[in-house]
Amino acid sequence: MEYFQRQKLVDERASAWAEAVELLTVAANEGRAMSTEENEKHERLCAQVDSIDKTIKSAERHAAIDQRHAEIDAENAERRAFTTGTSIEQARDEVRDYEEAFTTYAVRGREALTAEQRQALEARLAEQRAQGVLTGAGGGYAAPAGFWSKITETMLFYGGMMEVGVETITTNTGNPLSWPTNDDTSNTGSWVGENADTGTSTDASFGARTLSAHILTSGVHKVSLSYLQDVDPVAAEGFLTRALGRRNGRALNTALTTGSGVGRPCGIINGLSTGKTTSSATAITYAELIDLEHSVDRDYRTNARYMMHDLILAYMRKIVDSNGMPVYQVSYRVGEPDSINGRPLVVNNDMDSTVATTKKTVAFGDFRSSYVYRTVSGGQVMRLTERYAEYGQVGFVTFSRHDGLTQDSSAVKLLVQA
After folding, report:
1. pLDDT digit string (tens) for the chain, length 418 residues
2. Chain centroid to CA 323: how far?
């Protein structure tokens, strides 16, 4: 979808929301709740906003993924040219040849490989085994950097934790990594006289936790053998990287949001403290959102944003401020996020979805300062040829390694229902 087509949809969405806003403000200014008829119209307009929003976000997601996939191919060629000392043209050819070999294996199977392609894949597999990382037992070859990067980039577009902007580090191995945690917002400098002692020092409240490398698998994704036989290998590569990336992205986002930390990342929600408790178990007010914002130190509010479930966002659309204006505002430009109280908003459907007792309905703050996500570069894609042969299907499964933890719990705070 072209930019101007997306902008037209953005304008239609803004127009529908303006009608919904008028219904809210009229009722608020008259000191009453919306009538049944007004409420029904408001719901229809919000549904229209949601429908257009899904179309826009789907188009933007696919456009962004396509762009990143193209950039990945160029980056991998440049990286190989640098490490091997070859020309960019030769490096581009070598990267393309290996990726074509892997794509042929993934789509057509081992029997379709040429002798040169088989040799290239086996050499890379032997290198991976020597490094002691995930092995190819059971029919897996090392996914080339381009193929795996396309899966990884697709993962990042599914779920709110990557969108909200957490700190991300990539390591070449999965060895345990000691990671500092810190909250220094309560400490300040001090004034001293000339030649005077600086006085008692105040240490930053540092701690240390360990980032591991937990194994994430996509589970088996079954694909019709007829499809793989008929489709162009390049098109099949795009289909597979998207399908496997979506699966991994959804599982990863759940763990980074609410994971227990046992055999998977420790989710950000489990590492945060309460910034504001609502007075009602079944309601959220404008004043409570303001209190939540100011429970976060102003040092972190510069880059702060909101994160919540889509159903909580639906609730937010009916909240008005002290002037009778909705706290929620749609964006008017392609690529700009919606906002609450002028702060960017990210939807994360792995958060609590109901306004009910003890639910952690809203998170607010600087997520990059609060949370660190660790991923191990590379991964493995396995093709399961025989297992589903009687059904006319081929199975694909991926393995990758990740972890995450809260590094500064004061940077983001939670709104918790009473």
Report:
1. 566 787 888 888 888 888 888 988 888 888 888 899 998 999 899 888 888 887 887 777 777 777 776 777 777 778 777 877 888 888 777 777 777 888 888 888 888 888 888 887 777 666 555 554 444 434 456 667 677 777 877 787 777 898 898 999 989 888 999 988 866 666 667 777 777 776 665 555 567 889 999 999 999 999 998 888 888 877 888 888 888 988 999 999 999 999 999 999 999 999 999 999 999 999 999 999 999 999 999 999 999 999 999 999 999 999 999 888 899 998 877 677 889 999 999 999 999 999 999 999 999 999 999 999 999 987 888 888 888 989 999 999 999 999 999 999 999 999 999 9
2. 35
